[in-house]
Design a protein that fits this description.
Layout (H helix, E strand, L loop, with lengths): L8 H10 L24 E6 L14 H10 L4 E3 L6 E3 L2 E6 L5 E6 L13 H13 L14 E8 L2 E6 L6 H5 L7 H4 L9 H4 L14 E5 L5 E6 L12 E6 L3 H10 L4 E2 L7 H7 L3 E5 L3 E7 L14 H8 L4 H7 L5 E3 L23 H10 L11 E2 L11 E2 L1 E6 L7 H13 L4 E6 L3 H9 L16 E7 L5 H5 L17 H10 L5 H17 L3 E7 L1 E5 L3 E2 L11 H4 L2 E2 L1
Parallel strand pairs: 1-10, 1-11, 17-18, 17-19
Antiparallel strand pairs: 2-3, 4-5, 5-7, 6-7, 8-9, 9-10, 11-21, 12-21, 13-19, 13-20, 14-20, 15-16, 22-23
Length: 569
Amino acid sequence: MRARKLMTIAAATAVLLAAAGCGGGGGSDNGGGGGNAVKQGGIFTLGSTNYIDTLNPFNYIEAGATVSFMEIYPELVQYGPGLKEIVPSYAKSWTVSPDGKTYTFKLQSGGKWSDGQPLTSEDVAWMVNTIVKYPGPTAVLASAVAHVTSADAPDPNTVVLHYDKPVGNALAQLTYLYVLPKHVWDKYTGNNGKDLKTFLPEDHMPVVSGGPFQVTKYEKKGQTVFKPNPGWWGPKPHVDAVAYVYYTNADSMIADLQSGQISAVDQVPFTAVDAVKKSGKAVIDTYPGGEITNITWNSNPYKPQHRELLDPKVKEALSMCVDRQQLIQVVFGGYATPTESLLGDIAKPWQSTDYQPLKFDCDAANQTLDQLGYKKGADGIRVAPATTGKYAEPAHKMEYQAMVPNSLDFNGDRTFDIVQQGFMNAGVKLTEQSGGDSSAAYAIETDDKCDPATNTGYSKFDLALWDWVASPDPDFQLSVVTKAQWCSWSDTGWDNPAYDKMYEKQGTLVKESDRMDLVHQMDKIIHDNWVYTQLVNEKGIAAHSPNWEGYDAQALGYNYDAFTNPHLK
């Protein structure tokens, strides 16, 4: 997911039409710039502690999957280098109707899927209409086409999107739309669209692809190989192949980088950055990071137990006992900053300024908990009094489990230790619950039979230590706490109908200042309800071998260039 300052429709159209001649992700230059030829060939090997959980865009969770989707599935538009603007991709140009409700995209011609079938507007229209028709099974991608009623393909190189109202961030939303081959996926719309989530492209090699690469080998927690797609319409990749290698141990990954066994890594372990710099065996790449770590609170208003953790005052008090400066130094090696907003610092203009930074003041926190009636027992652990009513609970100790996935790119166990000590200083006992990989961890949060229609799910976990990767546009981050994302992107189970109405409205505000005012209000609501306790905003720190050039770690998952531009010196 991502973030950036939004332009109005008129401004966006003017800027992007000016770039309409661009192709292949706004930045590839097969000439290498300045007329110098770029060396072709070689295998670019990228190490990561993020694995590719699936190649199905309807049912994924890992960051590695988004990197893959960007390289194998066409997108109408995408973020350009530096994530500063949205640029043409499969759509080379577009126009917007005077009422802002019809977008007409002119597409690149001559493209083919990797199996030789033509890539046309029919694929785009099918993808959009499928998401519109099956909103439940396709909820993961629903925000990409918010307020779209239908899509038409009047000719092979033109696709028309019809909206029920003007959408101010329509182009930013479309950066999440991965176009799938209709001739492959159309047969999986059965069971009222639910089969779309269960189909696994990775079981059918090579995966039919329409981007610059095709996947010829897939290992969920091993090595996945991307080879150039001969039917790709844009600038050709410089490499013979890209190998995406998953590591369970970040230290081993860095050792392989320094020994030359891999070409680059997408994240240097924070505590190893200084050592890598001193070694001189790798080039450090830094950029503004969009990843924010947090305490994820189970905020489901229907959960049956530990309902005291629904009280924002309790969550705020416990958060005041967590030493974020200690986290920054011990876990992140100084390469992070405190943050307060779910939107992430990459979307700073969209953050509200109407709440104060969280203070590290455990004495005040203890006073608050005393005043709320949570008294300490003889063992120093506070007790939540008995309650009555529909969700009555007997008196019980304030002892909770904190779920920690093992697929984090920071030290989750050490983070837990610091959070655990802070809570203990408030008289609250935490026990670490191993979350397993991302899929398993998310299953713990949502429960096995998650169903928003019956308010089923999010009933067992207490809190989690996890992260989000924010976007320049705030829409995705705002969406993850809506009821529409229950059992999909929601990791909190929060259900606030008033907020959900605001979310629907913000996407339809064309004037940036109006939308920003509403987003500020929404950001404050998320903050004041303590749906999350934001901990730190990580700095983006990657690295590559000095034998390679053109590697842009910030482009991973945002722009084709991440795989098409690297080349040997």
